[in-house]
Every structure is written in structure tokens, then in C-alpha cells.
Amino acid sequence: MGRICPEIRREKVDKQNGRGWHRLLRASACTWAGLRAAWVNEAAFREEALAALVFLPLGLWLGENGVERALLAGSVLAILLVELLNSAIEAVVDRIGPERHELSGRAKDLGSAAVACAIALACLVWVCVLLL
């Protein structure tokens, strides 16, 4: 498995991100590399991203005003955000070593619980906005 944005990792700390548009372009490249890695390696992210393709436009259409649209769409994006963080935690834990350890298991379980909370939040927002 290749490294993500290896050219950035090799530079000195003071030149790591560059400035202005150059920094933005380099950061964007790393962002896309991270999204691609999540898509390729994480089934849960793929499933949630496909669901987001349905629910984001639906939320923007069903919301009656800007606040409702933001709540509906934002709650869906929150699931993707938390899933990306969970995947990052899992990758770091797996990088440390394959052996079982209580703290490694706890870290992965906490990440999974965070995703479940994000899904519950989205469900709550959708119910409150659309049904109450």
C-alpha cells in the first residue's frame, strides 16, 4: 500500500505546507488521497457515501428554509466526517501492530460508537425536522 502525499512528508517542517494557492493545492491533493483511501479500503465509508448521495439532495429539497436544509444535510455529512475519523483511528491502531491489546480494542470500539452516535444524531434531526 502506497503512502499518501509522500512528497509532503519529506520536506522540512517550515516548508511543509507552502503558502497561498500552492498550500491549498497540496492540501487538496492530500484531501482527495484521503477520500480515495477511505473509498478503496473502507466498506462502511462506501455505504455511507452512497447513502449520502441520496440523503444530501433529499435533505436540501425537503428542508423548508435554510436552517432546516443545513440541519438535514449537515447531519448526513457528520456521519461521513465521523466515519473518516474512525477509519483514521483504525489505521493508526493497525499500524502499531497486529497483536490484540485492550487499549487498541477500546480505541476501535470508541470510534465505532462515535459513528453510531452520528447516525443516531442524523436520525433524530431528520425526525425532528420532518415529522415534528
UniProtKB/TrEMBL annotation:
Amino-acid positions noted as binding a divalent metal cation in the UniProt annotation, renumbered to this chain: E42, E90
Molecular function terms from GO: ATP binding; ATP-dependent diacylglycerol kinase activity; metal ion binding
Pfam families: DAGK_prokar (PF01219)
GO cellular component: plasma membrane
Sorted UniProt keywords: ATP-binding, Cell inner membrane, Cell membrane, Kinase, Lipid biosynthesis, Lipid metabolism, Magnesium, Membrane, Metal-binding, Nucleotide-binding, Phospholipid biosynthesis, Phospholipid metabolism, Transferase, Transmembrane, Transmembrane helix
Membrane topology (UniProt): Multi-pass membrane protein
Reaction(s) the record says it catalyses: a 1,2-diacyl-sn-glycerol + ATP = a 1,2-diacyl-sn-glycero-3-phosphate + ADP + H(+)
Cofactor note: Mn(2+), Zn(2+), Cd(2+) and Co(2+) support activity to lesser extents.
Bilayer-crossing regions: 70-93, 113-131
Cofactor: Mg(2+)
Positions that bind ATP: R23, E42, E90, E99, R100, H101, K108, D109
The protein's name in its UniProt record: Diacylglycerol kinase
